[in-house]
Amino acid sequence: MPRSAATSTMLLLFIAGYLLGCGPRPGVVEPATRHPCTLTAGSAASDTVTVAVGGSVDPTHAPVPRNEAERLLFGHLYETLIRVDCQGRVVRGLAESWSSSDEGRRWRFTLRSGAAFWDGAPVTAEDIKASWLVRRGERPAPWADSVAGSAIVESERVLAVSLDRAHEEVPRIFAHAGLAVARRASEPRSWPLGTGAYAVVMAAGSDIVAVPQWAVREDVLPVFRFVASGDDPRDLIDAGAGLLVTRDAAVLEYAEAAETVQAFPLPWDVVYLLLAPSRVGTPSAFETAELARELTTGAARAESRVPEGPQWWEGVAACPVAWSAPLETRASSGRIVYRRGDRTAQGLAERLVALAAAGRLGGLVPALSTVERPSAAGLSDSEYAAAVAVGRDGAYVLRLEKHVLDPCLAITMLLRRIPWAVHSDLESVLVPLVETRAQAIVRWGSGTVMIDWDGMPYLAPVAR
């Protein structure tokens, strides 16, 4: 059956099943124990699996996600040249093979035979290069600019890329979501065309329907229904969501009482830090332990733990960064600033203010001990980014990903956010506060759920 006809058939079947109420099929999916990257294994027990996307989703951002909700959704729709699993192993993505030359500075990728966009058009090396050049400001700059600019199309299926430094193995950064591939749709308001296992065929507000795209299994894969909602996630559990990712303790408690779902802890994937422009002090071991206890017992407002090292920004001397001489102590406003809407960052900032007012942060951030009335300030995304870039506040609660594909690139990108930090070794202005993780709430019969390199779960395309 042609791809377009099969896609239309799947959409009609979905709508019919959705209106008539397709019931679950017999069978129960048991938790997987044989592979560390698998949460649950087995086939989907129904024709449609609902994935709850907790947060806003904007199709104009695709294929580059800007929040966790978009990461969860876009990961099912778009591909990168390679993938990295939860153990750091490289597996094939859009590229089926690769090789290097010039001592690892030049890499040639051969695209997967039969790879196609949602409309059936074959993916070419020219498509890859063109995709990287679109909206370059949202890619992992400045590395992506260099890669896109150096890419040479050798044939329809072969793309060569020159890098600024040698790599013994294929650079894992090619698995970064910022290098996902898409092609513009003919209609301006349509979703960009992807090459992933699923294709968007209907999007009505927060309700997004995706049907199987890989023709080899098109007749046996379930339809995915993504529901993006800012409402109470517990309502989505009651509505039959097959997969939901949350950091909310109340939602987890609710899920534990349900008989048809189970919560699976995901890897510790986020670390919150105190960024202090005036440089941090050298607190005693007792002060450090007390601070950790204060912040992980309620202040973080999420499942949290004391940070465990080493962290990727430590020991970056080998990275090609032009560090400058330290600046004089910077003026301080006495504010501890956090990004508005981040409940964990808010809880940490408010607790740190209380500790500073009580004179208990002097060993950690000496400049705050001289502030008469420290305060916590929540800023919008743009205001927060501007404040961090200037660095004139007492401190900032900074959220970073715990796992990165390329530490040197991550350092470069971090310094673009806080340019004044190039005058410091980062360990003198950064203090890890807590690490947090989400949990995946999975309904039995939802199919195989895998974990990606960054801790984000996804529903693997497994036949029913």
Question: Can you walk through the features of this model?
Answer:
The protein has 10 helices and 22 strands. It has helices spanning 3-20, 68-77, 125-133, 143-150, 233-238, 249-257, 285-299, 343-357, 381-390, 407-417; strands at residues 38-40, 48-54, 82-84, 90-92, 95-101, 106-111, 152-155, 158-162, 198-204, 207-212, 223-229, 243-246, 261-265, 270-275, 304-305, 335-339, 375-379, 395-401, 430-436, 439-443, 449-451, 457-459. The strands form 5 sheets. The chain has a 7-stranded mixed beta sheet, with helices on both faces. Strands 15-19-14-18-16-17 form a 6-stranded mixed beta sheet. Strands 5-6-8-7 form a 4-stranded antiparallel beta sheet. Strand 9 (198-204) and strand 10 form a beta hairpin.
Spatial strand sequence of the major β-sheet = 9-10-11-2-12-20-13
Mind telling me the C-alpha Rg?
Answer: 24 Å
Percent of residues in helices: 10-25%
What's the CATH architecture name of one domain? Roll
Provide a count of the helices.
10
**Mean pLDDT reading:** 82
Characterize the main sheet: 7 strands, mixed
CATH class of one domain: Alpha Beta
Protein structure class:
alpha+beta
Using the coordinates shown, work out and report the CATH topology of one domain: Dipeptide-binding Protein, domain 3
Would you report the number of β strands? 22
Quick one: overall form? globular
Low-confidence stretches: 1-33, 215-219
What is the distance, rounded to the nearest whole angstrom, between the alpha carbons of the first and last residues?
Answer: 19 Å
Strand content: 15-25%
